[in-house]
Amino acid sequence: MLDTLLPPPFRSGPPRPSRPRRPHFVAPIRGVERFSVPGAGALLIDIHAGDRIALVNDEGGQCAELVALHPGGRVDAGLLGVGADGPATGLLALLGSADASMARLRLGLARRGLDLGTARAITLFGGTSPAGDQATLVATGPGHVIVCAPGGPMDFEAQNTATPLTVTVTRANPALGMQFDLPDPLADPLQDIRIASATARAYVVRAGDYVQILDVDGRQCTDFQCFDARKLDAGIVKPLDVTTTRTLMGHAYPNPGLHAKYFDDDFTPLVEVIQDTCGRHDAFAMACTSKYYDDLGYPGHVNCSDNFNGALAGYDIPGRAGWMAANFFFNTAVDDHGVLLTDEPWSRPGDYVLLRALTDIVCVSSACPDDTSPANGWTLTDIHVRTYSGKERFQRAAAWRPTPEAEPIMTRETAFHAKFAEKTRDFVEYKGFWLPNSFPETDAVESYWACRGGVVALDLSALRKFEVTGPDAEALLNWVLTRNVEKLGVGQVVYSAMCYPHGGMIDDGTLFRLGPQNFRWIGGSDEGGVWMREQARDLGLNVMIRSSTDQMHNLAVQGPLSRTLICDVVWTPPHQPALQDMGWFRFTVGRIGGPMGAPVVVSRTGYTGELGYEVFCHPKDGDVVFDAIWDAGAPLGLKPMGLEGLDLVRIEAGLIFADYDFTDQTDPFEAGIGFTVPLKSKTADFVGRDALLRRKETPSRKLVGLEIEGQEPVAHGDCVRIGRAQIGEVTSAMHSPRLGRWIALARVDVAHAEIGTAVEIGQLDGHIKRVAAKVSSFPHYDPSKERPRS
Prior knowledge:
This protein is of the alpha+beta class.
């Protein structure tokens, strides 16, 4: 036994700094600002002499229009050192439209007293510009520049979708640029309140008005507290109570949507969350206190609770040693051992929470002074508060970032939202869209039976669509997809997996072939488009991959009566397949009602295990398409289906769902879709082929069905055990109305995947409650797919 320790090795040189890799602009870069211009959108940027304006054509094929204006409003392309190319037709068309996304631009122009009139524009890029194409201009003086990514409704056959531009402004004088750190207000503010670092401010908000709390520089926490003003007038001090809020909302903290309100302990609703661009907050910990810092060895440290006391003294609110609060941008979590953990905030520069006052309230907000932990990213900065009139209208929304580098996209309403909103108020946020979850007049089980025996309609507009075009389109898709794209004919659709080199799945989806060099990929994630662009760039392929998600929204019509309904609604021209003759996994182009109706693409595809169709249209035609389908479906007993009902039919049919039944650590064989990997018949190489060959030859896990004994509910993530050993986990589960029992999909060790194997599903801690089950055939419903083929 050694009785001495080995000496530590000598470490030469100075210490190395900690530099974790982060997405760009997570923290502010002094003098550098980044903006994203959505396809068919525009934004206004204030500029000064010497500022460099760099534009990137993110996805390729997108024209850019720039209009430069002097401070007095005179249009002058010379302000950017070049001449105008022609009228700003694209920008003026967008400004003249009723598109709600142009409202902030119109507000910005009005606030600065600018009138474009018949403005002329600088034109950059074009239809053949590759992804990543760049251009740089330099401002010759102070003024404003409007950057526009013009575009109209996409022609589904021409695939002329509008795509985003990224603009980076490098300030010649960073000190001047600092005044533009805050984004333009959402509307004309009633109050503009700066809360300096390590301080707090109190303010009053009237019932119905809005409060926007902004993180100026990113990664800065702010504690928020408010009081019913009418109770204060009566001498009753009832602050916002996070314990009451968590209990009533059933969430760790409120979010935009149905579970959005904060309450006091009288159950009085005080504020409602309308918008949130961060998505990570705390409603467990108190605002920091003197005792917190005393116990850490920092006696006398400034703290939020004492700052609250000072700010609220003018409202005769008694001070407290510690204040309960809604801790916005504060990043906490409770681990498996019950420990409350704190880490750096997720918030980025300009992130905000927008609240609506539900009664007259006295508010107080802080800029947290904690510099002893990662709670504020180790750098203390300011918080900014704006209030707006209740006469303004702000859509409920949360931010969605397609990639860590991307600018936030606020939750959108689909083309069919208004129509579904007449039937339900239960919408959930799903990857940047509000989708119907359930319907009070048609619950999940009723919609299940309607789908199995009649016909339903559901909104699948959140699916990601990408237009893949160019001479090398087929070569790229044959490389990134597991299917043999060379065999796909025009008018056909194929279901495929997309994998990383190690064999883990990026996504699954369907590929439409529109022509020899024209394809449309429809999947579940934005990552698929990013991956295809990266592969095309690295291989030097002549192909463009452009998102068309916002140009094509889709209503799925599913069930045995779907063919009857669709054939009554959609007209197809003679050169396109007739709907009554269209086979499974094919598509056609047509119009609603006749040759002059709204254009649509109709595919014989679905996610229910039944005969079904998906109808794709531009959002502007959403009401027309919905009404036509609903009117034709009424005699057939058409029912709406939400995500709750969809989960029942897709699990029973064995249709997999990302982040439940597969992740990037799951290969297609382990996800139950090994049929998408034709290793023998596909002679061309593709991403992940070598890894998939190895994984197929030496499998370790398999997706199986489970039949549950009794009526105990089981859920995604429950462990599957034999004895004390965990041999797998449940990926999806449901109570099958048809079978009258609970069933599940589970991924288990191949040694225990044989049909009939007895297993137990562990709950609570995985041991003290066990539910008996056995491995069953997969899928549980129509394994030969005779119904969708019918």
